[in-house]
């Protein structure tokens, strides 16, 4: 009930951003700005409420309004270090093409694991875009792989576990083991695999589809190689037979 009420309050505040600083009078007593529930001086909202507004605007995709809201925030050190505020600033910097600012934010704060996935996506996409601008053409799979090697994820948004094409190695191992058992999982099994690996059902489906395609291509190559060996062998046999039987 409390969480729902906070979300409703945040949504209401987000809808009334232009005048939100005047909605609640500034406190006249001494405050501790480090406390998330303490009213921010001359602003009228707590850190928790500011964080809620940031999250609501990020989820709505309204980047322009999010940028205006961030610009209106007071220069409070504790507020500027709030993770929701920093995530919002990262998203705004990305959409404005200010990649240097994006990298600075991502490298200067140790974000919680729950935020890693989205922030990793911003880091990689920004580097892909910069590389494409320099080369004047879209990056292929190999090009993106080289960018990931050249600009590894900072430890501030990465738990240190080895990744492969943005899939954690333990997730890939789970998928490999299941593939060896059954290359064609049912929709229900795909959902279970998604829950067990932390991936989406679409990612799981695409992984199995791509793996089956690679295996089929590998089988075709092996089949062609076997035919070539047989053909070469038969030609050698015919040449040898002709050599020793022609008088």
UniProtKB/TrEMBL annotation:
GO terms for cellular component: nucleus; transcription regulator complex. It is found in: Nucleus. Residues 158-218 form the Homeobox domain. InterPro entries: HD, Homeobox_CS, Homeodomain-like_sf, SIX1_SD. Residues 160-219 bind DNA. Pfam families: Homeodomain (PF00046), SIX1_SD (PF16878). The keyword DNA-binding applies. Gene3D superfamilies: Homeodomain-like. GO terms for molecular function: DNA-binding transcription factor activity, RNA polymerase II-specific; RNA polymerase II cis-regulatory region sequence-specific DNA binding. The keyword DNA-binding applies. Its main location: nucleus. Keywords: Developmental protein, DNA-binding, Homeobox, Nucleus. It comes from the Eukaryota. Belongs to the SIX/Sine oculis homeobox family. This is Homeobox protein six1b. The gene is six1b.
